[in-house]
Each structure stands twice: as structure tokens, then as C-alpha cells.
Amino acid sequence: MGMEIKMSFNESFQEFPIIETERLILRELQSEDAEDYFSYFSNKEVTMYWGYDCPKDVKTVASTFVRFSNAFKRKDMIVWGISEKGTDKIIGTCILGNFVRGSMANISYNLSREQWKRGFMLEAIGAIIPFGFNNLGLHRIQALVMPENNASISLLEKCNFKNEGLLRAYSFGTLFTDTLIYSLLVEELN
């Protein structure tokens, strides 16, 4: 885990950054992950607060992965597939994107329903946040969350994100809904 090495924003995009935690490997999604991704992401409970419809089929997922890869090459977004060590099966994703001048990014995430309440997302985000601040040189990481999404709010607060307020009728994927904005600044990283 020792992420003491300081890299620049651009250097971090030369090859996909693989992050290892105690129980997880965060890695680039591959075409062979499409079935696992589709399997958990087609569960309405998983996408309830996502703001987008779930993918139609495994083929759609494969083209989504190509879009993720191209976005990484353009330095627009990093989409980590979350896999449990020993299985290599994708159980969720975590995304850093919407970079603003290399100083700010949005974080979003999703996790297979079967894996909820096991601390996996806390572990994944706990590794991605220092990567964002140390390797990408970000100053601020923010998250948009629907007010009814108590699990996500609890997760963000455990990671020391601060509630900055309510964005009224904000565009959240394909919806317009009230949305909370949370943020964490580099000096608040502990």
C-alpha cells in the first residue's frame, strides 16, 4: 500500500494504476469481466441511486468498457473494477472523473448487492482517495449523492467527507433530483 511516491497527473495516466488493499485488487475492467459486471449492475437495488438505466445486455457492457478505456487514455476518468483477492471476480467499480484542471475530481462507486455491509467500499475508497491526492495531485474530491441514499452518505462521512449542501433539482444522470454534495480536501486527509 505504501503510496509515498509522488507522481504527476499526466504520469498517472501512462499505464492503468492497479491498487491493492488488504482484501481487494482495484484494476482495469477487461472484456472478460462483462458478465460479472452485468450480473450485479442489472440489479435494481444496485442502480437505484445511480441515475442511469442498467446496461441492456453483456454486449452493451463490453462497449461501455471500451468507453471507460478511451476516457482513461484521454485522462478524463479512471474506472477501477473492484475484485476480491483470490477470486478476480468483479464485485463493483469506483470512478474518479470529471477532472478540473487536474485539481479536482468527482468520485462515484457501486457494489454488488451480495457484497453490501462487508466494508469493501470503505476499503476501496480508502485507497483511491490517497491515490487521488498523492498521485494525481488533486486538491479536492467531491461526491454527489441523493439525500435518500443513507448507505452512501454514511460511507462518505466515514471517509471524512463534509456535506456542503443541497443542489436543488440537479441533473443526476438521466434524472433531475435534489442532490447532496460532499467533499474532501487534501488537507483533511488523515
TrEMBL record:
Residue ranges annotated for the N-acetyltransferase domain, each copy included: 24-187
Gene3D superfamilies: 3.40.630.30
InterPro entries given in the database record: Acyl_CoA_acyltransferase, GNAT_dom, N-acetyltransferase
Annotated Pfam families: Acetyltransf_3
Highest taxon listed in the record's lineage: Bacteria
Protein name: N-acetyltransferase YoaA
Species for this entry: Paenibacillus glycanilyticus
The organism's taxonomic lineage, starting at the top: Bacteria, Bacillati, Bacillota, Bacilli, Bacillales
